[in-house]
Prior knowledge:
The protein is of the alpha/beta class. Helices cover 30% and strands 11% of the residues. The chain has 10 helices and 6 strands, in the order ααααβαββαβααββαα. It has helices at 16-19, 36-44, 46-49, 55-60, 87-98, 135-146, 163-176, 204-207, 237-240, 257-268; strands at 72-75, 108-111, 123-127, 151-155, 220-224, 227-233. The longest helix is centred in the middle third of the chain and has 14 residues, at 163-176.
Amino acid sequence: MLRHSPRDRDSKGRSALEAGQPSGASGRSDPLIPRREALRLLARGAAAAMLLPAAGFGQSRASDGPYDFVFTRLMYESGDWDVDQRMPSNLLTALVDYTTLRVAPEERVVALSDASGMTGSFCYLAGHKLVEFNPAERQNFQSYVRNGGFVFVDDCNHDIDGLFATSFEAEMSAMFGADAMPKLANDHPVYSSFFRFDGPPATSFELNGWGDDLVHDYLRGIEIDGRLGVLYSNKDYGCEWDYNWRNKRFLAEDNTRFAVNIVVYALTS
């Protein structure tokens, strides 16, 4: 169960009434494998569905065991997959702080080459270096996404011409087509799945002029049957959320709130 309706709060934690905004509705109704049974009720009515008891997730989504959410990191042979090692704990803490989802306390690392490990509803893939999937990794990634899985992919170089970006995008073009990963509109449901955002939040690394000296005002994604299967960022959210949890109290605004949006979207789209 989530503590409030996904449309009830904006990115600053204000209610729709406090922010002077209407409380809209979003979401899709396509039930999909492997989440189709678990999310059938959730997808029919976003506001009402978000108020279902937490047991509703676990009972139907046996692939995540006793938990509603498991952070699964994908390990691939090329590149440096094990980046931003403190980030998962901060993301999981945010879910505990803002929702009543039953959250697995530690990340799970799964080899992309092992199809049997890719059974959950959310996976994370990141790095700085070359992304060159071997045949098993390529087949498993494509099958997982096409069958209802969700992968959040983060370019730790936060650029558009670096090795990670160019090589990962080449992999996606080979799997899903050259035009399969367009920019997302700023009113995409991922920006209102829990908190309200006007688009993707900037990261301090972009604002400090690192990487390609650009603030990327977009995310990109691959849609399968009307919902995102891949959410792709050149903004380096992994590093943005990779800090000692004690430092969170010094932030003017909790930057992990967008992580909550991503997870909620993955669970309910």
